[in-house]
Structure prediction request, 502 residues.
Amino acid sequence: EMREEEAALTPEERQRRKEEAMMPRPFKGIMEAHLKEGSLVWEYTGGVRFQIGVLKDVTKYGATFQPLDMEGMQAQKAQLYIDLRNTYERLYAHEAENHEENALLRRNLNTYYDEFVMRYGNLNAKHNAKLILMDASGRNMLSLERGEDGKFVKADIFDHPVSFSQETLAKVESPEEALSASLNLYGGVNLPYMESLCDLPQADILEALKGRVFYNPLADGYEIADRFIAGNVVQKTADVEDWIKENEGHGMLPQAQEALSALRDAVPEQIPFEDLDFNFGERWIPTGVYSAYMSRLFDTEVRITYSENIDEYAVACSHKTMKITDEFLVKGYYRHYDGMNLLKHALHNTCPDMMKSIGKDEHGNDIKVRDSEGIQLANAKIDEIRNGFTEWLEEQSPEFKKRLTDMYNNKFNCFVRPKYDGSHQKFPDLDLKGLGIKDLYVSQKDCVWMLKMNGGGIADQEVGGGKTLIMCVASYEMKRLGLVHKPMIIGLKANVREIAET
Prediction:
């Protein structure tokens, strides 16, 4: 009936309708999560008819459907490809989010793919790849096939999930490997899980991991040393000490005391007062210290406050003395800067931007230039304030110096970087003889252990440090332990052969 109606149209009317059909319009379909700018889509236009288009101006509220001039077999191929892509995206998203296999979507994916290949050939065939690459996700879709023996075969996702591992238990040979598996699966030390992996009671596991895991009373559980004895160990030590005082008779008190001892041993060596460099205006120094110094320097009560929100000091004094109004006065062409003005600049480590006039222009306005002499004099006064602070600190009592030193060390000299000790690793299946080496470097073992503990990381070593071997060993180990499902090594083309040989 529709074809009869179209046949009755005049050529002009038929052309007008075609032009209208090619006009951009709001997309009527469902905006699924995988659709983005440049995605190919299709819409029904009436009966069994449809139109291929591309999405433009994509927002969370909708998108614009830009029709493509595509008809006949080309349109049918595009429609089948779009259905294949949508099914793949839904399958991958479902399994990645829920960690459970979706057999129905996988059957649909195989059906769409088999039909596409039967009718049009492989996705990566040149005559198909051109169409597929018109889609924003086309490059990903071409990876649904891989080359084997000169032929294209289906990727793994057609057979089983690839976004998560279906292996429930890792294969471990020691408590250390059980610990690594626990960290990967649970993000922490899960003793029941580790016990199920290595068939050892928890007490034996903890004994084997002595020095590698510690009981953290603040978290009421065990943590690896790389995580527990790291960060602000000074604050952790104080917190654990408080917990022990408040929980005398607790069943885990011996373990907490052992952890406290390890924290105390890790506290960095105190930096003495003589080795510290105190700069006037540093934010960590209490404003009361600055106030005391300036009160002595200006022979009057000086009050200094600090606003953290705007990172700015405010200064005030009870009354202005000769030192403020005369000794620390800098006279500029347009304004004068007294001691209180210079004090604020000294606290912020800045200098007043002083200007002077060197004449008038044709309109009678001042010709302004920077007053270099005034700025130099102001800088000298500011330096006198700043340098005098260090001398004033040297004159203070030993108790005052100790308090200031402790304050600095507790705030800045309190952090410990994680130490990854991979010396216990055995690396089964590693052919050292084939590599032509007796053993891995200590740094390589530590780096591999770090990668296994954190599920990845950055191996930042110098050239010749063995990063290629680290990469290969870590990938193999993480696969062997079930920490990763399908490791992939990406390298520059010039390095691929070396990586493959390793």
